[in-house]
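Hi there, hope your week has been kind to you so far. Would you mind checking whether the tokens look sensible for this chain? I owe you a coffee for this, so here goes:
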Amino acid sequence: MSNFAVVGIKRHDNWSTPQDLFAELDAEFHFNDDPCPLYGKENGLDGLNREWGARTFINPPYRRGEVDKWVKKAYTESRKGKIVVALLRLDPTTKWFREYIRDTAEVWLICKRLKFGGAKHGAAFASMIVVWRGV
């Protein structure tokens, strides 16, 4: 889709993680936190403004101005010795990739277009798994 609004189509970026992908990652990392479902003013909770668990998974909102906050928070939490694993849009041209991922985390490329929960079709973009192994 272009940057133009399409009448009658509601665009959003809150897509759930494919269950098989999450299960595979959880089997390896044994997550004890996922702050992203807590995100949102509609429920009065904000996963960005609380301490994360020792082994955290995130699939943050991808919209501009949001994903960078989550990536920075993931990096910051990893500096506290925590493991943070993120499902993100593959885009190494962004400032958040250069500042918080490139030299600080493992990047695992996903070699297919993911079909996120609730979507009728595969994503229009490539994805990656980013692993910050706490320092």
Remarks:
- The longest strand covers residues 83-89.
- The beta strands are 55-58, 83-89, 106-109, 127-133.
- The radius of gyration is 15 Å.
- The chain has three helices and four strands.
